[in-house]
Design a protein that fits this description.
A hairpin with a 2-residue loop joins strand 24 and strand 25. It contains 8 helices and 27 strands. By secondary structure, it is an alpha/beta fold. The chain folds into 3 domains: 192 residues, FAD/NAD(P)-binding domain; 133 residues, FAD/NAD(P)-binding domain (3-Layer(bba) Sandwich); 93 residues, no CATH class. Bound molecules: flavin-adenine dinucleotide. The site of flavin-adenine dinucleotide has 38 residues, from helix 1, strand 3, strand 6, helix 3 and helix 4.
Length: 421
C-alpha cells in the first residue's frame, strides 16, 4: 500500500488529462494519473486525421496534437503519472489496485477517484453473423491502430459494416493507403456518425453508404473471400432476394462502442442501461460518494472538445471533494428523457449546489427534422428551441439555469423531450 493521493485518475486519455489539469488548477496538489498504455493520450494517439480541437483551441488539430497540448499542461508540474500500469480493482472505500511489470501489485488509497477509462468497440461475436472465423475481420479501431501506429495494412479489398465515426474515418484512411473500399453497410436507416464525416470520408471518395443493409454471410474459411450484404426491413430483418455478394479480403466492423465500466461495477457504481456509463449528478459524481466520471466511460462522445469540457467539471468537483470544500448535497431532482430523447447526462441535479449554468448533454433516438427541443419543469414548458435536424450521431446539449429553477420554486422533475414544430 502506498501513501494516499488526493485524487487518483484512472485513464490517461483526453478525459483523464483534462480532469487532472482542472483538479490541479482548482487547488488539489496531490494527483495521480494511472494509464495502462506506455504513453498518455488515449485513443487520440491513433487518430492521425485532423478535426480535433475546433472548439477548445479554435484550430484544426490531429488527435496526437490535441492530446499533446493537454499532456504538456498536465506535465507542467504537480501531477504524478504511472504508465504501463493497469488498474484491476477499485473498492467502494476508494482503494485502487494496480499491476505493472515494474512495480508488481500496488494498492493506492485515494480521497477521490475520477473514472476516465474510455470505451471499447463491439466485437464480431456480438453480431451473430454466420460463417467461419477467417482472418481479415477487424474492428475499425484495431485496423486504425495497425495502419496508423504499427504500419501494417489489414487488406486491399475492403467492406465496412457500420457507419459510426471510426468506420467512416477508416473508409477514407484505407483509400488513402491504396486499398479499395467497396461500400459501407449500415443496419439503421441513418448513419451513426457525424454528418461532416459522411461528407469528408465517403462522399468525397465516392464510397457508397448502404443504409438499411447488413452483412448476412461471411465467405472464406482461412481468409475472408467475400461478404454477402442484404437489405433489411423496418425491424432490421434481412429481406430475402436482396442479397449481393461483395468479393473482398477484409471486413471492418464499426458497430458501436461500449463504455469500459467493469472497474466502476467493482466499486459499486450504478450504471445507466441506456448509456452503459455511470449514473451521475450535476457535479458528475457517481452514486458512490467521491467517485466521479467523465469522457467516453460516462457516455460515448462525438467530439473530444466536449470530453475535455466535461472532464474539467469532474476534475474541479473531485478537487473540492478531496479538499473538503464541496458543498453538501441538499436535494436531488431527476432529469427525465422522453419522446425522442434517449438519455441525459447528468441524470439528476441538486438545485442548490448546481452552478448558475449547467450543461445537460443528450442524444436523440432517430433522425428528426424541424423539431423543438423542449424542457419542462414538472408540467410547465420552460425552454422550446427549434432545430432543423437532429440525428443520433450528433451529441446535443441544453443549458439549465440555477436562477430559473430557483424562480420556479419546488420542483419534482425536469423533463427533456422533442416536440413537433
Ligand atoms: C477512431 C476514432 C476517431 C475519432 N475522431 C474524432 C474526431 O475527428 N474529432 C473529435 O473531436 N473526436 C474524435 N474521436 C473521439 C475522441 O477521440 C474521444 O471522444 C476521446 O478520445 C475520448 O476520451 P477518453 O479519455 O474518454 O477515452 P480514451 O481516449 O479511450 O482514453 C481512455 C484511457 O484509459 C485507459 N484505460 C482504460 N482502462 C484502464 C485501466 N483499467 N487501467 C489503466 N488505464 C486504463 C486507456 O488505455 C486509455 O488511454 C474519435 C474517436 C475514435 C475512437
Amino acid at each position: 500500500m502506498t501513501d494516499g493521493y488526493g485524487i487518483v485518475v484512472i485513464g490517461g486519455g483526453p478525459a483523464g488529462l483534462a480532469a487532472a489539469v482542472a483538479a490541479r488548477d482548482a487547488g488539489c496538489a496531490s494527483i495521480l494519473v494511472i494509464e495502462r498504455d506506455c504513453e498518455l493520450g488515449g485513443i487520440l494517439n491513433q487518430c492521425i486525421h485532423n478535426g480535433f480541437g475546433l472548439i477548445t483551441f479554435d484550430e484544426e488539430l490531429t488527435g496526437p496534437e490535441y492530446a499533446a497540448r493537454f499532456e504538456e499542461l498536465a506535465r507542467a508540474g504537480g501531477i504524478d503519472f504511472m504508465l504501463d500500469t493497469m488498474v484491476i480493482d477499485i473498492s467502494a472505500d476508494k482503494i485502487v489496485t494496480t499491476v505493472s511489470r515494474a512495480a508488481g501489485m500496488v494498492r493506492i488509497r485515494a480521497k477521490a477517484i475520477i473514472l476516465a477509462m474510455g470505451c471499447r468497440e463491439r466485437p464480431r461475436g456480438a453480431l451473430n453473423i454466420p460463417g467461419y472465423r477467417p482472418a481479415g475481420i477487424y474492428s475499425a479501431g484495431t485496423a486504425q491502430r495497425l495502419v496508423n501506429i504499427e504500419g501494417f495494412m489489414p487488406g486491399r479489398e475492403v467492406v465496412i459494416l457500420g457507419s459510426g465515426d471510426i468506420g467512416l474515418i477508416m473508409a477514407r484512411r484505407m483509400i488513402l493507403e491504396g486499398a479499395h473500399v467497396a461500400c459501407v453497410a449500415e443496419l439503421m436507416p441513418y448513419s451513426g456518425g457525424l454528418k461532416r464525416n459522411i461528407v469528408q470520408c465517403l462522399d468525397d471518395f465516392g464510397i457508397p453508404l448502404l443504409l438499411s443493409h447488413t452483412v448476412v454471410r461471411i465467405e472464406g474459411a482461412k481468409r475472408v473471400e467475400a461478404v454477402v450484404i442484404a437489405e433489411v426491413d423496418g425491424c432490421g430483418k434481412p429481406i430475402p432476394g436482396t442479397e449481393v455478394t461483395y468479393p473482398c479480403d477484409t471486413l471492418l466492423l464499426s458497430v458501436g462502442l461500449i463504455p469500459e465500466n467493469e472497474l466502476s461495477l467493482s466499486a459499486g457504481v450504478d450504471l445507466s442501461p441506456v448509456t452503459r456509463g455511470p449514473v451521475v449528478n450535476e457535479i458528475l459524481e457517481t452514486g458512490v460518494e467521491g467517485i466521479f466520471a467523465a469522457g467516453n466511460v460516462l457516455h460515448v462522445h462525438d467530439l473530444v472538445d466536449y470530453v475535455s469540457q466535461e472532464a474539467a467539471v469532474a476534475g474541479r468537483n473531485a478537487a473540492a471533494y478531496a479538499l473538503g470544500t464541496l458543498a453538501a448535497p441538499s436535494c436531488s431532482v431527476p432529469l427525465a428523457a422522453e419522446d425522442g430523447v434517449r438519455y441525459t447526462v447528468p441524470q439528476s441535479v441538486d438545485p442548490v449546489r448546481m452552478p448558475e449554468e449547467l450543461i445537460v448533454r443528450f442524444r436523440v433516438d432517430n433522425v428528426y427534422e424541424n423539431r423543438y427541443v423542449s424542457v419542462y419543469f414538472d408540467g410547465e414548458r420552460v425552454q422550446h428551441r427549434k432545430r432543423s435536424i437532429l440525428a443520433p450521431g450528433e451529441m446535443e446539449q441544453v443549458k439549465l439555469r440555477k436562477s430559473d429553477i430557483e424562480a420556479y420554486g419546488r420542483l419534482e422533475k425536469i423533463t427533456f423531450r422533442l416536440e413537433e414544430a
